[in-house]
């Protein structure tokens, strides 16, 4: 039995969010223009390189988590991959909180998507492991 729709959704979102964070990191490392005035009082200071490292590390974790979630469910690492995905989505939501003053709408959307990923990984992980022997058992949830 393949992964449920929620697990596939969660894995794809984790990978796409990771790719977007890596692109943000590349931009931050290569940007040499004027830094916005309100960045001076930000949590990580006025250096875009600091944000670049945070985005790069977050992006790599998100990509790895998404790939792990799509892995085979019969291996012992399936439970670990689910927890890595949940933690990675949580880190993504926390990272989005830091940029709410600068990008409020996008940050709230990012947080909402991270919450959906956490829901998909926590509430629907059992769907992946369920393989009923009879078709009438397929719709029973205890």
The best one-word shape is elongated
Mean pLDDT over the residues = 79
Distance between the termini: 19 Å
* Helix and strand run: HHHHH
Helical residue percent band: 55-70%
Low-confidence stretches: none
The proportion of residues in beta strands is under 5%
Number of helices: 5
* Number of DSSP-assigned strands: 0
Helix/strand/pairing class, anyone?
mainly alpha
Radius of gyration computed on alpha carbons: 18 Å
Q: Quaternary status of these chains? A: single chain
Give a brief description.
With 142 residues, this protein is an all-alpha fold.
List keywords for this structure.
5 helices, elongated, 67% helix
Description of the structure:
The protein has 5 helices and no strands. The chain has 142 residues and is mainly α. The protein is elongated, with a radius of gyration of 18 Å. The model has no long low-confidence stretch (mean pLDDT 79).
């Amino acid at each position: 039995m393949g992964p449920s729709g929620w697990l596939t959704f969660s894995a794809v979102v984790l990978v796409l969010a990771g790719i977007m964070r890596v692109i943000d990191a590349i931009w931050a490392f290569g940007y040499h223009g004027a830094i916005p005035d309100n960045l001076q009082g930000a949590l990580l200071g006025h250096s875009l390189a600091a944000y670049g490292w945070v985005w790069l590390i977050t992006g790599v974790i998100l990509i790895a988590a998404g790939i792990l979630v799509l892995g085979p469910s019969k291996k012992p690492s399936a439970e670990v991959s689910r927890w890595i995905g949940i933690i990675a989505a949580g880190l993504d939501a926390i990272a989005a909180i830091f940029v709410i003053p600068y990008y409020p709408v996008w940050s709230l959307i990012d947080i909402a998507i991270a919450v959906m990923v956490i829901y998909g990984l926590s509430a629907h992980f059992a769907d992946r492991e369920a393989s009923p022997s009879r078709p009438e058992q397929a719709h029973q949830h205890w």
